[in-house]
């Protein structure tokens, strides 16, 4: 469905139920990084058994584990984390509406998990309600000066219904599919959410292996079909996403992800085309696939990969080791389904400061990949790109995966904490070699690298502090960065924002 039809549909439903104000949601979205660290901490301690690397995360997937905890047996850090997650769980069932405003001196260049805004100066209202088998959220907002010219938005609005252990939803939701804290190569909250139809397993009831007594594997799965809009070379391109997330061992979590662009105006869009995409038979020369004389009938553009996270107890601390490998599909010169895989990975641990868990992480990501003979010339311009879908894996001017787009290596150190007094804080120091091949696939055009057309070495310090005062939630933060370039003078940049939300 198009964005217009989706937003009109959701708005009509919301107006029908607008005689009361309520906010109750069946899942945890990507807006609260501190809450995510607490859920991860409880999972590393073995108190949450469900996989927690696929967001939005269903409350039903972790609620049973949370209620099964014996609080009297917890030490202070685990008890504080468990109590805070339980408060969020209880809050998610209450009837509350909110109004908020974000004021900033500039757009947010990189929008990661938990970031308050993408575009500066935004006003938003939020209304949601939930019954036994359905959920509805309406979040209209207005942006003063958006880059995509869409001043009025319904991002994070949805309608969802439950069928058995499955949730069917239609709406616009941010997704984060990986264990990375700073970024990930597959699907992140960097770009605005696309209107999509989705199907998600409601809880993570484990699969029991045959011929075993108690070997169980908790698992979740989600899939969606999204409309990538009209602001691209092939309008109304569809994006299919699939993710399977499971835990074969209490300390090992595995994720498998596929993304595929297909259909769109003037492109093949029948079921047989999607079947070729689904089965991986969408590269010219693959299993005799006929793509036409000029290759223009190639069914789609795919990416696929896996991620792992292993939790290890060392000297009284749980250390998390996580890794993601995410690849482009094959090409006309290759019959391989999986080529040009790029890595992302890191290590994290939680230390206790004054009884409060503080998560620390170091993360490295590399999105520089070479197509055909470009390696000999030192030019990438391959990752997130495609010869037919020339806008690539991007939406409304941002990459849907890596915050730093393609041809970039990044190294980030960060710390995150939820404190006892309804306050949270986070900061990170990132070094990134942006577009380090100093080339762009489409120089001077809207397509290609969305961050910079030329090479840029970036050093950025970012921070945020947030606290709740009764019905008020106030957040302040900003970035200070220094950029150096090969052929021009260096540049310093500073941004600051204030985010205020009031519960009606």
CATH-derived architecture? Beta Barrel
Low-confidence stretches: 1-23
Tell me roughly what share of residues is in helical segments: 10-25%
Overall shape: it is: globular
* CATH level 1 name: Mainly Beta
Q: Name the assembly state.
A: single chain
Q: In terms of structural class, how would the helical and strand content be classed?
A: mainly beta
Give a description of the structure:
The chain is mainly beta and 504 residues long. The protein has one domain (3-503): Porin. 12% of the residues lie in helices and 42% in strands. The protein has six helices and 28 strands. It has an 18-stranded antiparallel barrel, surrounded by four helices. Strands 1-3 form a two-stranded antiparallel sheet. Strand 20 (339-353) and strand 21 (356-366) form a beta hairpin. The longest helix is centred in the first third of the chain and has 16 residues, at 76-91. The radius of gyration is 22 Å and the shape is globular. The chain starts with a helix and ends with a strand. Residues 1-23 have low confidence and may be disordered.
